[in-house]
Specification:
- This protein is mainly alpha-helical and 458 residues long.
- The chain contains 20 helices and six strands.
- The protein folds into three domains: 106 residues, Fumarase/aspartase (N-terminal domain) (Fumarase C, Chain B, domain 1); 249 residues, Fumarase/aspartase (Central domain) (Fumarase C, Chain A, domain 2); 92 residues, Ribonucleotide Reductase Protein R1, domain 1.
- Helix content is 61%, strand content 5%.
- The longest helix has 37 residues.
Length: 458
């Protein structure tokens, strides 16, 4: 019956059974139990401090909530769809346990500001965890960069061989990306870490509450400044989903390279058996399932961002039931990001590198052509003229099925009299790599310095 609902006083007929199931959120928002209880304890303590409810009621509420927390964590709490959500499930159980005192807990608050608080508390914890997982992945990348220092591989543009680079430099590129991802999570935390409790349903409360005291109890550095905004926006969640989408984009790009590099055509790397599977029909297969799955999961995170943006795009102030749809995209994204980071960090640390294959590939495809052009520039030739000279040399090599280092000095001088025997020292893979020593370059000395800088947390 409607009278059995905590809000049922206004209703004369019971809620339709299917409507009850359709509108309930307890199936997914029960994961907020810890945050809901923590917020309720702080709220009760504030009510007692302000003399809004008796101290004895505060003590009973706090003790009852702590017992409920233990029951939930032991799996002894039966969640009810009829009670709709985590808030009403806990409050109903509290009232059943301690009587009238439990019914006073909701004084001065609404489920609207209560759920806003729960989500912010939950996200605050998860953002911190995600930053930690990013640190683990960055550590794995630095481990490989340091371990493989000096290994030369081809750098690509358009997926075509471009210039030789250090494998460590390639790993450090992802370090920079994931450091920015961590920065976005930390920045999102600043806007998430604001107390909304006290906004009530939309207009605040008539009780003399102390919001700053609640903020202090819950470690919020500030309180929200507008009651309408406090309960009706989820931009902090949208911001997280956007940051998570960028993070997953980086993981997906990395996944694509790992998939390519582990093919028999590249053979640059081998992923540990623990992160691969085989074929049910082809006994020789070793499939890079983890990076493939992370690449695939990126799409669901993008979808979650679009889903929440769509939920919020036309909502008038203040709270609307549509906003119940904020949790599943948020929870799914958090689970996906944390799982992807955790497995990637372990996979990268165990990844095996084939330096010989990488070097062989770097020596092909005229990867030092730009070094020849730079050589001619240093001899006094304008770069555009040097570019044309080297282009003709490459064309000649293609026709003769040679690489640039295989040309004789006589062949070189057929393209330009400025070329002298010192050309051969200028176009080795090591010379090409180490010549790029400006900040951000792939030279060995520069890469060593960047590894140390990153290890120092700078």
């Amino acid at each position: 019956m409607a009278k059995d609902k905590l809000w049922g006083g206004r209703f004369a007929q019971p809620t339709d059974k299917f409507v009850e199931e359709f509108t309930a959120s307890i199936r997914f928002d029960k994961r907020l139990y810890h945050q809901d209880i923590r917020g309720s304890i702080a709220h009760a303590q504030m009510l007692g401090k302000q003399g809004i409810i008796p101290p004895a009621d505060v003590a009973a509420i706090v003790h009852g909530l702590q017992e409920i927390l233990q029951q939930i964590e032991k799996g002894e709490f039966d969640f009810s769809v009829a009670l709709e959500d985590i808030h009403m499930n806990i409050e109903a159980r509290l009232s059943a346990k301690i009587g009238e005192a439990g019914k006073r807990l909701h004084t001065g608050r609404s489920r609207n500001d209560q759920v806003a608080l729960d989500i912010r508390l939950y996200m605050r914890d998860e953002l911190t965890d995600i930053a930690t997982y990013l640190d683990l992945l960055i550590d794995s990348l630095l481990f490989q960069a340091e371990k493989q220092l000096g290994v030369i591989m081809p750098g690509f543009t358009h997926l075509q061989t471009a210039q030789p680079i250090l494998f460590s430099h390639h790993m450090l590129a992802y370090v920079e990306m994931f450091k920015r991802d961590k920065g976005r999570m930390e920045d999102c935390l600043k806007r998430t870490n604001v107390l909304p409790l006290g906004a009530g349903a939309l207009a605040g409360t008539t009780f003399p509450i102390d919001r700053e005291y609640v903020a202090e109890l819950l470690d919020f550095p500030e309180v929200s400044r507008n009651s309408l905004d406090s309960v009706s926006d989820r931009d902090f969640a949208v911001e997280f989903l956007a940051a998570a989408s960028i993070l997953m984009m980086h993981l997906s790009r990395f996944s694509e390279e790992l998939i390519l590099w582990s093919t028999s055509e590249f053979k640059f790397i081998e992923l540990s058996d623990g992160f691969c599977t085989g074929s049910s029909i082809m006994p020789q297969k070793k499939n890079p399932d983890v990076p493939e799955l992370v690449r695939g999961k990126t799409g669901r995170v993008y979808g979650n961002l679009l889903a929440l943006l769509t939920v919020m795009k036309s909502l008038p102030l203040a709270y609307n039931k549509d906003m119940q749809e904020d949790k599943e995209p948020l929870f799914d994204t958090i689970d996906t990001v944390k799982g992807s980071l955790k497995i990637f960090a372990a996979m990268i640390r165990e990844m095996r590198i084939d330096p010989v294959k990488m070097r062989e590939a770097a020596a092909k495809g005229f990867s030092t052509a730009t070094d020849v052009a730079d050589y001619l520039v240093r001899k006094g030739m304008p770069f555009r003229d040097a570019h044309e000279v080297v282009g003709k040399a490459v064309r000649y090599c293609i026709d003769q099925q040679k690489e640039l280092p295989e040309l004789s000095i006589a062949e070189w001088q057929g393209f330009s009299n400025s070329i002298e025997p010192d050309i051969f020292a200028a176009i080795t893979l090591e010379a090409s790599v180490n010549a790029r020593s400006a900040t951000g370059g792939t030279a060995l000395t520069r890469v060593k310095a960047e590894i140390e800088r990153c290890k120092a947390g700078k």
